[in-house]
Design a protein that fits this description.
about 80 residues; mainly alpha; about 70% helix
């Protein structure tokens, strides 16, 4: 069994919360050096498509303040 397989096997024994913590730590370590992650041509094309759409149409999200306000209103 390879080291990766051993790590994966050990990770499967963790609780869902612990696996999420591990995932977060791994993601943080990857995001620290984004240039080290190679994109496939398909990923690069999709990224370009999304950036072009954002340039054309602007952001489509909801401001954080509105999200919080809506959540608080539901709780009343």
């Amino acid at each position: 069994m390879s080291t990766i397989e051993e790590i994966e096997s050990a990770a499967r024994c963790l609780s869902p919360e612990e696996r999420l913590q591990l995932l977060d730590a791994l993601w943080e370590s990857l995001s620290a050096t984004p240039e080290a992650i190679r994109l496939t041509n398909a990923q690069r094309e999709e990224l370009d498509r999304r950036l072009d759409e954002l340039d054309r149409e602007g952001p489509s999200g909801i401001p954080w303040e509105d999200v919080i306000r809506r959540i608080r209103e539901r709780g009343r």
